[in-house]
Sequence to fold (107 residues):
Amino acid sequence: VKSPDQTAVNRSVKLVHPTCLWSEISENALNLVKNNSTPDEEIYSLTVHAEKLVHPDEDGLQQKIFFEPWEEKYRRQYSLELAVDKIRSRYGNGSIVIASSVNNRLI
Fold:
C-alpha cells in the first residue's frame, strides 16, 4: 500500500490452501487493507503479489475420500471463474463485470 506522500507499507498473508481463484486472492488482499489501514486514510496505490499459484488444470488438492467443507466451495468457485473467463475471451472483457464496478469511474 502506498500513500499519497509515497510512504510504502508492505503486508503479507499465507493462504490456508493452494488456489488460483481471483476471488480468494482479492478477498485476502482486501482484508489486509482493511486490517492495516483506517477508513479515512488515503491510498495512492495498491500492489498485490501472488506466488506459488496452482496451475488452472490442477486443483492442488490431495486425492481423498472425504473432503473439507471449503473444498466443495473452491471447486464451484473455480468452475464459475472458468466460465466467466471463457465468456470474456469470446465476447470481450466488458461482457461480464462486477456489479459494484458498473458506475465506478475509478475501475
Q: What stands out?
A: The helical segments are 22-35, 69-91. The radius of gyration is 17 Å. The mean pLDDT is 78. The first helix runs from residue 22 to 35.
